[in-house]
Amino acid sequence: MKVVTWNVNSIRTRLERAEAWLRAHEPDVLCLQEIKVVDEDFPRGVFEDLGYHVETWGQKTYNGVAILSRSPIEDVHRGLPHDGDDAQARLIAGTVDGVRIICVYVPNGKNVTSWHFAYKLDWLARLEELLTTACDKDQPLILLGDFNIAPDDRDVYDPDAWAGRVHFHPVEHAALARLTGWGLHDVFRKHHEQAGAYSWWDYRGAAFPRDRGLRIDLVLATRAMLERSKGCEIDREERKEAKGQSKPSDHAPVVATFS
DNA sequence: ATGGTTGCCTTGCAA
After folding, report:
1. What is the fold, at CATH topology level, of the domain defined by A2-258?
2. The pTM is what?
3. What is the tens place of the pLDDT at every residue in A58-105?
4. A160 CA to B14 C1', in Å?
5. Over chain A, what HEC string results?
6. Quick check: A9 CB within 7 A of strand B?
7. Domain positions in chain A
8. Which of A54, A112, A136, A168 suits a disulfide with A44, CB 3.0-4.6 Å?
């Protein structure tokens, strides 16, 4: 079972690349973030023609998440506990071949003094509540997506410069630790110890060619799925620019394979 | 160096 998370930064702008990537890599499950379209405008036919079931929770202009799967997607759930009617579209879950898949787009946070940062922390607390009240840590479960948090020093290009900043703040690390403390494991770290394996590079300041990135796109799994984990790779190639091609997302896909 | 670039869709916000 090949499961992927990819923040595409607009599915309409990225459609050509997303379709080509799917044809080349043929994942079983693809979790998308920042689709930036309402459900009616999601180009589902393109993916259905490739053999995928499609479940979305879209939103105009911002956010939006989706799960594409070769097998049917059961028990689909959208949103978090205490979401209001105006909730941001940031979480969609479904069960595929007996594995609970939770696709998340964690709020960015902007900067630590912003209301966006408080919103991020509240959102993470409600994600923890979802796990503890509606999920089973002893069952096969994968929580994956754009977490907008780099777990440790190996996951940021300049840890000293990033210390205390949004995406690498102690309070964010504490929130992430509560999720993993519930019973989740960083699948990438089962297979790779090295520093400098990033999944996101800012569009600005030539961050990608200078390799100034962060690993903020994570695949977290319960013990049952960690034991089935056979590999986890970041597809850095997809972040590259090529002449005559449409632009890449600022995030690379993260590919995890399970038995 | 609080800059820079991209995507939304139109004028400024979010990332």
Report:
1. Deoxyribonuclease I; Chain A (3.60.10)
2. 0.98
3. 999 999 999 999 999 999 999 999 999 889 999 999 999 999 999 999
4. 26
5. CEEEEEECCCHHHHHHHHHHHHHHHCCCEEEEECCCCCHHHCCHHHHHCCCCEEEEECCCCCCCEEEEECCCCEEEEECCCCCCCCCCCCEEEEEECCEEEEEEECCCCCCCCCHHHHHHHHHHHHHHHHHHHHCCCCCCEEEEEECCCCCCHHHECCHHHHCCCCCCCHHHHHHHHHHHHHHCEEHHHHHCCCCCCCCEECCHHHCCCCCCEECCEEEEECHHHHHHEEEEEECHHHHCCCCCCCCCCCECCEEEEEC
6. yes
7. 2-258
8. A54
